[in-house]
Amino acid sequence: MKRIAFPVTHSPIICYAAAVFCIAAALLIASPSISAAKNPAGEAAKLSEVDRAEAAIKDLHSKLKITEAQEGLWSKVSQVMRENAKTMDTLMKARVEKLKTMNAVEDLKSYSEVTDAQAAGLKKFISVFEALYASLAEEQKKSADNLFKAPGQPKAKKK
Fold it and tell me: What whole-number distance in Å separates Cα of residue 61 and Cα of residue 13?
Protein backbone atom coordinates (compact mmCIF):
# COMPACT_ATOMS: atom_id res chain seq x y z
CA MET A 1 0.00 0.00 0.00
CA LYS A 2 1.38 3.35 -1.03
CA ARG A 3 1.52 5.98 1.68
CA ILE A 4 0.37 9.48 0.82
CA ALA A 5 2.84 12.15 1.84
CA PHE A 6 1.51 15.65 2.31
CA PRO A 7 3.76 18.48 1.17
CA VAL A 8 5.64 20.35 3.86
CA THR A 9 3.45 23.39 3.20
CA HIS A 10 0.56 21.58 4.89
CA SER A 11 2.41 21.02 8.15
CA PRO A 12 1.45 24.42 9.68
CA ILE A 13 -2.21 23.61 9.04
CA ILE A 14 -1.85 20.23 10.71
CA CYS A 15 0.05 21.77 13.63
CA TYR A 16 -2.60 24.47 14.01
CA ALA A 17 -5.41 21.91 13.95
CA ALA A 18 -3.58 19.84 16.54
CA ALA A 19 -3.05 22.91 18.75
CA VAL A 20 -6.74 23.85 18.53
CA PHE A 21 -7.70 20.30 19.41
CA CYS A 22 -5.33 20.26 22.40
CA ILE A 23 -6.70 23.54 23.73
CA ALA A 24 -10.29 22.38 23.28
CA ALA A 25 -9.44 19.11 24.98
CA ALA A 26 -7.77 20.95 27.85
CA LEU A 27 -10.89 23.02 28.31
CA LEU A 28 -13.19 20.06 28.22
CA ILE A 29 -11.09 17.72 30.30
CA ALA A 30 -9.39 20.17 32.62
CA SER A 31 -9.84 17.59 35.32
CA PRO A 32 -9.70 13.84 34.75
CA SER A 33 -12.17 13.51 37.60
CA ILE A 34 -14.95 15.11 35.54
CA SER A 35 -15.54 12.15 33.31
CA ALA A 36 -14.69 9.58 35.95
CA ALA A 37 -17.12 11.04 38.46
CA LYS A 38 -19.90 11.40 35.93
CA ASN A 39 -19.25 8.07 34.21
CA PRO A 40 -17.66 5.52 36.51
CA ALA A 41 -18.16 2.80 33.86
CA GLY A 42 -15.77 4.60 31.53
CA GLU A 43 -18.48 5.99 29.27
CA ALA A 44 -16.89 9.44 28.97
CA ALA A 45 -16.50 8.98 25.22
CA LYS A 46 -20.29 8.65 24.91
CA LEU A 47 -20.90 12.08 26.41
CA SER A 48 -21.97 14.79 24.01
CA GLU A 49 -19.85 17.90 23.59
CA VAL A 50 -22.59 19.76 25.47
CA ASP A 51 -22.35 17.37 28.44
CA ARG A 52 -18.56 17.68 28.49
CA ALA A 53 -18.79 21.46 28.26
CA GLU A 54 -21.21 21.62 31.19
CA ALA A 55 -18.86 19.49 33.28
CA ALA A 56 -15.89 21.65 32.21
CA ILE A 57 -17.79 24.86 33.03
CA LYS A 58 -18.55 23.63 36.52
CA ASP A 59 -15.01 22.37 37.06
CA LEU A 60 -13.35 25.51 35.68
CA HIS A 61 -15.61 27.75 37.80
CA SER A 62 -14.54 25.84 40.87
CA LYS A 63 -10.83 25.65 40.05
CA LEU A 64 -10.60 29.32 39.12
CA LYS A 65 -12.50 30.24 42.30
CA ILE A 66 -14.71 32.70 40.44
CA THR A 67 -15.88 35.42 42.81
CA GLU A 68 -19.29 37.05 42.91
CA ALA A 69 -17.80 40.16 41.32
CA GLN A 70 -16.50 38.06 38.40
CA GLU A 71 -19.78 36.24 37.74
CA GLY A 72 -20.86 38.65 34.97
CA LEU A 73 -17.67 38.01 33.01
CA TRP A 74 -17.85 34.31 33.83
CA SER A 75 -21.38 34.04 32.43
CA LYS A 76 -20.08 35.31 29.07
CA VAL A 77 -17.30 32.71 29.12
CA SER A 78 -19.67 29.88 29.99
CA GLN A 79 -22.18 30.99 27.34
CA VAL A 80 -19.49 30.86 24.63
CA MET A 81 -18.41 27.43 25.88
CA ARG A 82 -22.02 26.22 25.59
CA GLU A 83 -22.47 27.70 22.12
CA ASN A 84 -19.18 26.18 20.93
CA ALA A 85 -20.18 22.79 22.33
CA LYS A 86 -23.56 22.90 20.55
CA THR A 87 -21.84 23.76 17.27
CA MET A 88 -19.34 20.92 17.68
CA ASP A 89 -22.08 18.49 18.68
CA THR A 90 -24.02 19.27 15.52
CA LEU A 91 -20.96 18.98 13.27
CA MET A 92 -19.71 15.78 14.87
CA LYS A 93 -23.12 14.09 14.72
CA ALA A 94 -23.42 14.98 11.04
CA ARG A 95 -19.89 13.73 10.40
CA VAL A 96 -20.48 10.42 12.20
CA GLU A 97 -23.75 9.85 10.33
CA LYS A 98 -22.01 10.28 6.96
CA LEU A 99 -18.63 8.75 7.82
CA LYS A 100 -19.29 5.31 6.30
CA THR A 101 -20.47 6.73 2.98
CA MET A 102 -18.08 9.66 2.54
CA ASN A 103 -15.41 9.52 -0.11
CA ALA A 104 -11.95 10.99 0.54
CA VAL A 105 -12.87 14.50 -0.63
CA GLU A 106 -16.09 14.58 1.41
CA ASP A 107 -14.18 13.32 4.44
CA LEU A 108 -11.58 16.08 4.09
CA LYS A 109 -14.30 18.72 3.65
CA SER A 110 -16.12 17.44 6.73
CA TYR A 111 -12.89 17.49 8.73
CA SER A 112 -12.25 21.01 7.46
CA GLU A 113 -15.67 22.14 8.72
CA VAL A 114 -14.88 20.72 12.14
CA THR A 115 -11.46 22.38 12.36
CA ASP A 116 -12.86 25.68 11.07
CA ALA A 117 -15.55 25.56 13.76
CA GLN A 118 -12.92 24.76 16.40
CA ALA A 119 -10.83 27.74 15.30
CA ALA A 120 -13.84 30.08 15.21
CA GLY A 121 -14.98 28.83 18.61
CA LEU A 122 -11.53 29.33 20.06
CA LYS A 123 -11.45 32.92 18.80
CA LYS A 124 -14.83 33.60 20.42
CA PHE A 125 -13.64 31.99 23.64
CA ILE A 126 -10.42 33.99 23.74
CA SER A 127 -12.27 37.29 23.34
CA VAL A 128 -14.50 36.67 26.38
CA PHE A 129 -11.91 34.81 28.43
CA GLU A 130 -9.42 37.65 28.02
CA ALA A 131 -11.76 40.02 29.86
CA LEU A 132 -12.32 37.50 32.64
CA TYR A 133 -8.58 36.79 32.90
CA ALA A 134 -7.87 40.51 33.32
CA SER A 135 -10.21 40.55 36.33
CA LEU A 136 -8.59 37.57 38.05
CA ALA A 137 -6.41 37.90 41.12
CA GLU A 138 -2.80 36.71 40.76
CA GLU A 139 -3.52 33.32 42.36
CA GLN A 140 -6.50 32.82 40.01
CA LYS A 141 -4.31 33.73 37.04
CA LYS A 142 -1.73 31.13 38.07
CA SER A 143 -4.49 28.54 38.27
CA ALA A 144 -5.75 29.55 34.83
CA ASP A 145 -2.23 29.48 33.41
CA ASN A 146 -1.76 25.93 34.69
CA LEU A 147 -5.18 24.73 33.57
CA PHE A 148 -4.68 25.91 30.01
CA LYS A 149 -1.15 24.59 29.53
CA ALA A 150 -0.80 21.69 27.11
CA PRO A 151 0.26 18.38 28.64
CA GLY A 152 4.01 18.31 29.14
CA GLN A 153 4.43 22.08 29.52
CA PRO A 154 5.91 23.21 32.84
CA LYS A 155 3.35 24.51 35.32
CA ALA A 156 3.50 27.98 36.87
CA LYS A 157 5.07 27.94 40.31
CA LYS A 158 3.02 28.98 43.32
CA LYS A 159 4.57 31.53 45.67
Answer: 32
Q: What is the pTM of this model?
A: 0.67
Torsion angle defined by CA atoms of residues 70, 72, 76 and 82, in that order, rounded to the nearest 10 degrees = 90
CA 47 to chain CA centroid, nearest Å: 14
* Helix residue ranges, H only, 99-137: 104-135
Q: Where are the alpha helices (DSSP H) in the chain?
A: 11-28, 32-38, 49-64, 71-98, 104-135, 138-147
As averages over each run of 10 residues, the pLDDT of the chain (159 residues) reads 46 43 45 40 64 91 95 95 93 90 92 92 95 96 89 65
